[in-house]
Write a structure and sequence with these properties.
Layout (H helix, E strand, L loop, with lengths): L7 E3 L3 H40 L3 E2 L13 E21 L2 E12 L6 E9 L16 E7 L19 E3 L4 H8 L6 E5 L18 H26 E3 L9
Parallel strand pairs: 2-3, 3-7, 5-8
Antiparallel strand pairs: 1-9, 3-4, 3-6, 4-5, 6-8
C-alpha cells in the first residue's frame, strides 16, 4: 500500500530545484507576454474599427501628422498601365491567387500612391495573369494601410519585366524598381468598381482571444510544473537519504 501522506516529507533534491526554477519563470513570462499581445490586439481592433467607422475624406485633406492607418479616403487619378506587382500566395476559399498592386498617379498631387486593387485567382501558373487597366480617370474609395513591418523583404529583386511577381512587400525596393523618388503610400480599395478585383480582405492574422488562449496554456503548464515539483519532492519519512541530494 502507498505510504500515508502524513508519513512523507517534502525534500526535493537540487536537480529538481534547478529544473523547476529554470523553467517556471520562463512559462510564467510567456503567459504574461501573451496577455500583453492580447491587449495589443484589442487596442488594434478598436483603432481599426474606429478608423473604418469614420466617414471617408479626400486623401489630400489628411495632413502629415494625422492618424491615417485604416482611414477611409476618397481619391482620383490614373492607373499606371505598366507599374504592377502581383503579390503571390494569397489564398481565398482554398484557391491560390495574387493581390494586384498598382501605381496610381493622383489627379491633385505629384506623389503617386500604391493601390491594392484586390485578389485575382491564378489557376494557370505557367504564365502571369493578364491585368486589365482602366484608362479613364478613376474615382476610388480606399483605406490607408499601416506601414509594412520592417522584417519584410522583397524576395524577387532580380525579377524583370512587368507585371512583376513578388512574394513580400518592401516599399523602398519597389520604389526603386518603379523609378520613384520616394516610397509610395499604400492603400487598398474598399468598394467594388471598374478598377477592383475581389475585395474580401482577410481579418487580422491572430485575434485577442487566441493570444488569451495561449496565455492560459502557458499558465497551465506552469501549474503542472509546480504540481510535478511537489509530487516528485515528497519522500517517505523513513526512506533514508534523498537520492537526488
Amino acid at each position: 500500500m502507498p505510504a500515508d501522506i502524513n508519513s512523507r516529507q517534502f525534500a526535493p533534491g537540487w536537480p529538481l530545484w534547478l529544473f523547476t526554477l529554470g523553467f517556471l519563470p520562463v512559462l510564467i513570462s510567456l503567459g504574461f507576454w501573451q496577455l500583453e499581445r492580447a491587449e495589443e490586439k484589442r487596442v488594434l481592433d478598436r483603432q481599426l474599427s474606429a478608423a473604418q467607422a469614420q466617414p471617408a475624406v479626400p486623401l489630400s485633406s489628411l495632413g502629415p501628422s494625422a492618424e491615417t492607418d485604416w482611414r477611409a479616403v476618397t481619391l482620383q487619378g490614373y492607373f499606371d498601365p505598366q507599374l504592377i506587382w502581383l503579390l503571390d500566395n494569397r489564398i481565398r476559399g482554398g484557391v491560390a491567387g495574387v493581390e494586384v498592386l498598382q501605381i496610381l498617379h493622383l489627379a491633385d498631387s505629384a506623389e503617386p500612391v500604391l493601390i491594392n486593387r484586390g485578389w485575382l485567382a491564378w489557376p494557370d501558373r505557367s504564365e502571369l495573369p493578364q491585368i486589365p487597366t482602366p484608362e479613364q480617370l478613376q474615382f476610388l474609395h480606399a483605406e490607408v494601410l499601416p506601414p509594412v513591418d520592417s522584417g519584410f523583404t522583397l524576395g524577387d529583386n532580380d525579377a524583370a519585366g512587368w507585371p512583376r511577381l513578388i512574394s513580400r512587400i518592401e516599399l523602398e525596393l519597389m520604389a526603386e524598381q518603379a523609378g520613384l523618388a520616394d516610397r509610395p503610400q499604400r492603400l487598398r480599395l474598399r468598394e467594388p468598381g471598374p478598377a477592383s478585383f475581389t475585395l474580401d480582405w482577410p481579418g487580422l492574422p491572430t485575434s485577442a482571444s487566441k493570444h488569451t488562449g495561449y496565455a492560459v496554456q502557458w499558465f497551465a503548464m506552469a501549474l503542472a510544473l509546480i504540481a510535478l515539483f511537489v509530487w516528485a519532492g515528497l519522500r517517505p519519512a523513513s526512506g533514508g537519504n534523498n537520492k537526488n541530494e
